Protein: Lysosomal dipeptide transporter MFSD1
Organism: Bugula neritina
Amino acid sequence: MCIGRFVFGIGGESLAVAQNTYAVSWFKGKELNMVFGLQLSLARIGSTVNMNAMQPIYDSIAKSSAFADAPSYQVLGVSLYIAMFTCLFSLACALGLAFFDWRAKRILKTSAATTGETITLKDMKTLLLSGKLWLICGICVAYYVTVFPFVGIGLVFYEMKYQMPHATAGIANSLVYILSAACSPVIGFLIDKSGKNIFWVMAGTLLTLGCHALFAFTFATPFLPTIIMGVAYSVLAASLWPLVSYFVPENQLGTAYGIMQSVQNAGLAAISQLSGSLVDNNGYLILITFYLVSPLTPVSSQHPQ
Ligand SMILES: NCCCC[C@H](NC(=O)[C@@H](N)CC(=O)O)C(=O)O
């Protein structure tokens, strides 16, 4: 299982790096934030479908006559085979993308998704010494560790703190991603119109901070902070990722996005472990207070554009 998850991680995140680099190469100067918003929206539709569809798929296979006496690991295996079809769909889309890229290259007589230059060791050194890149990585990791692990443990949090029934807690927990799926393209469009990415990154961070404060210190309806968090997360993601393209030359974008995602994932791996242990040993109040402190790091490292 660990090998499978390792391969899955390499595949998924490499795909995300390529996707970001393509988006910048094709759309820089033309509604780039909206394009990132659209990507985000589709990714979050995928997360929401995954969160809500896998259990019913598993249950219906377990109940089917063909698997009536099958052990649970076999039912799980068949469920995962069904999920694999979405990966095949992704592969088909990647082939379609490769075709369009090749066609554009032929028609425009250029190297379509790149400048044609490749990264050199000197570029690599400059990139690694870039304070701006590390600041963006810092913002990214400090922000994302307050959202993804929160959604990861959200179901139990809503059930325990707000005494919600399982189904209602599931809906509440999906809301962050559902809202992000619905509003990210519009938010991306608005960011394009205003052109103030750093302002929006700060706004997204501060709003999320407010949501965690409401979760930690009040018993007011959790739907309000959850909805605000869905919007705030969309604001941050649609403004933060395109920011890299404003100061990293095109031939170094893939490397820059690779570094950003490595830092993000290292933080997420560590904080997911820590979240579990904080909940088990200290309870939800301490965990949410920890989330409350984390986004202060991105806020204090930003200044308006
Ligand atoms: N590709 C759209 C912008 C990235 C959004 C961001 N992505 C990640 O966190 C990546 N580690 C995984 C991915 O790009 O799917 C997100 O908020 O999902």
